[in-house]
Amino acid sequence: MMQTTRYTKRDSEDTSSPALAQMENDYIDEDEDKYSEVSSSLAPDGSLVSTVADRHGFFGGTQYLMESKQLISPNKIKERERKWLNMTADWDKQMVKNIKKVQNRCRKGIPQSIRPRAWLFLTKAHKLLQAHENYYFILCDKPGERKWIEDIRKDLHRQFPYHEMFVDQDGTGQKELFNVLKAYTILKPEVGYCQAQAPIAAFLLMHMPAEQAFWCFVAICDNYLRDYYSPGMETLIQDGNILFALLKNYEPHMYKLLRKQSIDPIMYMTEWFLCAFTRTLPWPTLLRFWDIFLFHGVKTLFKMGLILIKISLQEKSYSSLKKRFPTMCETLEALRNPPLHMLNEEKIIKKLVQLEISENTFEYHHQQQILLRRKSKETKKPRETDVF
């Protein structure tokens, strides 16, 4: 039997699910699609800044939506909300007997009003919340290590500065973000704080109360993005090499261009993986991506990475690629700035679902990386004649 790794499909659990009855009504917002008249201006970077937030809470920036298409009817949304509430009421049983149904509903998109509850269950953060009641607030009251505190404070204003939660430097949003990040450094002192954690914590705070966001953040850092934030980031480098190997299989002409130009994966995929695409994808696409990511786990990062490389470079032959991207500079510019108009929610999610990468493929490339890393360490061992 193949050994389970962080790249393989999630397993269900047999433990009983705690009752979170009060959560059912907390997240349903009947007015979430109502809008007011908007006046706007331009920010220094040229992006639109509005006097009224869009349906996701943005006043401006690249994530601001001038208008929002209603892709699903209100009746269909209510039906999906009801199904999700029923499913989470008996979650562990569903994950054992109806896991395919859970998968399909994640792929269709979790209703906005249910996302906080669904994400807690998908990450198993609801179990952490149940097991450590009020512990988050105890962590918040502790002083924390000065080094991490200073680093966190420097980054607070950089996280979604045009969002209604974080636009005010002294507002509740930035204070809650500080507490969540500080609490994690106290809970996990061996990891501490990494700048890339901040957008993920902020993203979660946009969807749920601070205590729930914290435990969801813990679950994601410890399970989905495990070892990404450790010193040296060996796991991130390893996963970048796996992404490159997958690119060779799926888009060999693009692989050839990157190899010829000596472009290592770490040069363009770092923010993608470390931030779980929170800084890359348009908001509606990002939400749908996370619905799938929290079900399938880390392999979803690789699939989205492959899709972004293909969208960014586009050309179908090596000769046309070489002509369009003659040097490393042009290639990296394209990879770091994928065209937003091609990141449409429905198209990207369809590509994500259709892109099949087997568990055996991930496991093979994972084992190859382990062997390569082992050989690399062995070659670096000093010879007896080198030891004085």
Automatic annotation (TrEMBL):
Q: Which GO terms describe its molecular function?
A: GTPase activator activity; small GTPase binding
UniProt keyword list: GTPase activation
Q: Which GO terms describe its cellular component?
A: plasma membrane
Which InterPro entries does the record associate with it? Answer: Rab-GAP-TBC_dom, Rab-GAP_TBC_sf, Rab_GAP_TBC_domain
Q: Which SMART domains match?
A: TBC
Domain (Rab-GAP TBC) ranges: 109-297
| Database matches in Pfam families | RabGAP-TBC
Segments for region (Disordered): 1-25
Top-rank taxon of the source lineage equals: Eukaryota
* Gene source species: Sipha flava
Protein's UniProt name: TBC1 domain family member 10A
